[in-house]
Structure formats: structure tokens, C-alpha cells
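pls design
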């Protein structure tokens, strides 16, 4: 929602057309990742998607798209073959490698700035049944668990995409009492490939500790894609901070554990993603508007609470945590994880691609019609603002 603007609600545009022979899918912008995964599953296919099912295909793809197959098949936008776009002057354009290729470049990373995407065509991939889940350690063993994750994930083939997520299991989650009492460090992921290979490969990680609970098992990709949805329920208050990290030294682990222990809300989750060393890095940073492809870790603090009166203390805690993480933060962020808007953050997200995006904005949206977003200002607006 926004003040002094118009919200275009695309949520009724739900069509999905799968072409199993060509391994492509055409999707309208109201579709969520859970809906798309469910539709592809009977064909044994999957789209790269997000780590949860509730997010929309549109916004996630137009800004990047990190999900459980990111190391094997890249970002959601790396799998885009074409999209239809209603531009600022009302024209309907197709953007692809061969049509309006400059627009195609910009839509893949800064898409909200150039038009309204009304249809997406993606490459999709065989997935079927995958090995997915988490090894859950109590936070008192969190240091060793995260150090082990740091070593283990260096050896993983691209078939395995894995994360660390720290959270307090909700009461209805049937896990050992120690995890409810202390909170959990979940070392989790999805292996998309031969299940026997996955079983062998993940065994050292699943045995390490040992964890208080090992909830890995074979499951349909559509189930794996939505297995973390419970962590980010709808209808809550949120305050997020995110950036890439330059590394994951012991001092960062200690800082994360300390702040997790002092989080004012039990719903808050902390995520460390290892998205790299795979398909994402194989695309050049200037090949799409999405710039940051080579950082080892993507870090995300998602403060979540339900009582609006608790906003101040949750926001203060998040900011203090963020300041404490400064020594480990890269000058780079993923645009879709930024909880706030601002020119500095936009520059941080697009880095050296920023000037090319301004030139594209001058061409496709010179009056900045699409501006209530992570905004690339056209150069005329910038001049006026300076004047
Ligand atoms: C709970 C949660 C989990 C998340 N998990 C992931 C994750 O696993 N991986 C990941 O990469 N990101 C993730 N994100 C971030 C996510 O990518 C962004 O929030 C993204 O904007 C979601 O897109 P949407 O279509 O659902 O959102 P919307 O709120 O519908 O859209 C967000 C913005 O995108 C633009 N937009 C949306 N649709 C269009 C369109 N058709 N044409 C032009 N502009 C459009 C608009 O500016 C709009 O304001 C997560 C976010 C949340 C809240």
C-alpha cells in the first residue's frame, strides 16, 4: 500500500501454462511460488522460486529470486526467457534476449522501475522428489553447529542449497523440549538430484553434534519449497535488515548468537544464506541489472512481532544488532531483502550497474511514474531535486 499513489492489484491474474516438453512455464503476475510449485510438481518439474511459498512470482523475480535451487540453476531472473511489460506510456512490450533487450536487462533486477510485468516465461527444471529438511541444534551448541556449517558447505556440490536459520520453534512444532527452551540453530537445505547421492553427501552434516532433531527426509519439491513458510506468517509486524557478508568468522557467529539471545520477540528469525559457488556466479555481474553475484553469504535479520506496541523495542534491537554486524558486512545488499527504501540503499543494491539503470529509466520512464519502489531516479528528476 502507499500514500499519494495508486496500487495496481494483480492478484487475480493467476494463469499458469506448463509446456513439459519444452520445460518452460508461462505465469501471470498474481501467482505465488507455492501455487507455481504445486502446478509443476505433477510433471516432475520445478521453478527456481523463493525459499518460501507465500511470496509472489512477480516481485521476487523482478528483484532477483533466491530459492532452494539457486546454486544449481541460478536466480529466478536467470531463468526468465521473456516477459510482457506495460510501460509508463501504456505500450505493451515484450522483453527478451532478442526483443527490447535493454529493457530485458533492466527488468532482471530492477523490474519495478520500468513497467508493470503482466506475464513471465521461465525455464523450469527436473526436480521431482528431493532430500530436504533441517538439522536442529539448541543455541547452546550453536557455535559448533555454525562452525561446522561453514566448513561443510564449502565442499557441497551445486545440487545442495543450504542455509542457517535461527528461530524459536512454535509450540505446535513437535521437536525436543531443549529447542523450545533455548531456540534452534537450523542447518537446513534442499538436495535436488539423486537421492542416494544426497543421503551420502548430507550424512556428515546430519550426524554432526548430533543435532537435537534431524528432520531431513525425501519429499516432493513443492513441499520442500514451502517447508519454511511457518517462520514468516502473514499478518505480523516486520522490521528487516540485510546485506551480504564478507565472510563468516567466529566473531560474527558470536555476535549473532548474542543478539538472538536478546531478541525481544520469540517470532524473530535470523537467516544466513549460502547462495554462491554455483550458477549465480556463472553469470557476469553486468549481464543483468542484478549486480551482486560473488559474495559468500547473504545475511538477513527479520524481526517479527504481533503487538504494535512492541515496535519500538524490536526496531531498536534490530538496529543495535545491525551496528554490531558492521565489521562483517559487505557494501552490497540484495534489493528484495531491504526493509527500507532510500537512495543510498538503491546504490548499494545496484553497485556499478546503477548508471546504466539511470540511462534506461530516462528511456522507459523519464517522468518517474513508477517511483514507489527501490527507485532509480531518471537523470532529469535528479537535476530538479538538486536544483
Ligand atoms: C516472508 C518473506 C519471505 C521472502 N523470501 C524470499 C526468498 O526466499 N527469496 C527471495 O529472493 N526473496 C524473498 N523475499 C523478498 C521478496 O523477494 C520481496 O518481498 C518481493 O518483493 C516479493 O514479491 P511479491 O510479488 O510477493 O510482492 P509485492 O508486494 O506484490 O510486490 C513488491 C513490489 O514489487 C513490484 N512489483 C510486484 N509485481 C510487479 C509487476 N508485476 N510488475 C512490476 N512491478 C511489480 C512493486 O514495486 C511492488 O510494490 C521474501 C519476502 C518475504 C516478506
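designed seq:
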Amino acid at each position: 500500500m502507499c500514500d499519494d499513489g495508486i496500487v495496481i492489484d494483480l492478484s487475480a491474474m493467476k494463469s499458469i501454462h506448463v509446456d513439459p516438453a519444452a520445460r518452460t512455464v508461462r505465469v501471470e503476475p498474481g501467482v505465488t511460488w507455492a501455487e507455481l510449485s504445486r502446478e509443476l510438481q505433477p510433471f516432475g518439474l520445478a521453478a527456481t522460486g523463493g525459499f518460501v511459498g507465500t511470496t509472489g512470482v512477480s516481485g521476487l523475480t523482478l528483484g532477483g529470486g533466491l530459492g532452494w535451487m539457486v546454486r544449481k540453476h541460478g536466480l529466478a531472473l536467470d531463468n526468465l526467457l521473456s516477459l510482457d511489460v506495460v510501460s509508463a506510456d501504456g505500450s505493451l512490450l515484450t522483453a527478451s534476449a532478442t526483443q527490447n533487450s535493454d529493457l530485458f536487462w533492466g527488468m532482471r533486477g530492477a523490474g519495478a522501475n520500468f513497467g508493470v510485468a503482466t506475464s513471465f516465461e521461465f525455464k523450469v527444471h527436473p526436480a521431482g522428489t528431493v532430500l530436504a529438511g533441517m538439522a536442529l541444534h539448541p543455541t547452546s551448541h550453536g557455535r559448533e553447529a555454525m562452525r561446522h556449517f561453514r566448513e561443510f558447505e564449502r565442499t557441497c556440490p551445486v545440487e545442495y542449497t543450504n542455509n542457517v536459520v535461527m528461530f524459536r520453534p512454535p509450540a505446535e512444532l513437535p521437536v525436543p523440549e531443549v529447542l523450545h527452551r533455548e531456540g534452534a540453530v537450523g542447518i537446513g537445505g534442499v538436495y535436488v538430484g539423486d537421492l542416494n547421492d544426497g543421503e551420502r553427501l548430507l550424512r556428515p552434516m546430519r550426524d554432526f553434534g548430533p543435532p537435537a532433531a534431524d528432520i531431513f527426509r525425501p519429499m516432493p519439491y513443492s513441499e520442500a519449497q514451502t517447508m519454511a513458510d511457518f517462520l514468516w506468517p502473514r499478518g505480523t509486524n516486520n522490521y528487516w535488515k540485510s546485506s551480504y557478508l564478507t565472510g563468516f568468522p567466529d566473531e560474527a557467529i558470536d555476535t549473532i548468537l548474542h543478539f538472538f539471545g536478546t531478541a525481544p520477540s520469540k517470532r524473530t528469525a535470523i537467516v544466513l544464506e549460502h547462495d554462491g559457488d554455483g550458477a549465480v556466479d556463472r553469470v557476469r555481474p553486468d549481464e543483468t541489472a542484478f549486480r551482486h553475484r560473488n559474495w559468500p553469504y547473504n545475511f538477513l535479520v527479520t524481526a517479527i512481532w504481533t503487538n504494535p506496541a512492541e515496535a519500538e523495542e524490536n526496531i531498536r534491537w534490530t538496529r543495535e544488532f545491525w551496528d554490531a554486524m558492521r565489521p562483517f558486512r559487505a557494501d552490497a545488499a540484495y534489493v528484495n531483502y531491504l526493509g527500507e527504501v532510500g537512495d543510498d540503499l538503491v546504490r548499494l543494491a545496484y553497485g556499478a550497474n546503477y548508471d546504466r539503470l539511470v540511462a534506461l529509466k530516462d528511456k522507459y520512464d523519464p517522468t518517474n511514474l513508477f517511483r514507489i519502489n527501490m527507485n532509480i531516479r531518471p537523470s532529469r528528476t535528479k537535476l530538479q531535486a538538486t536544483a
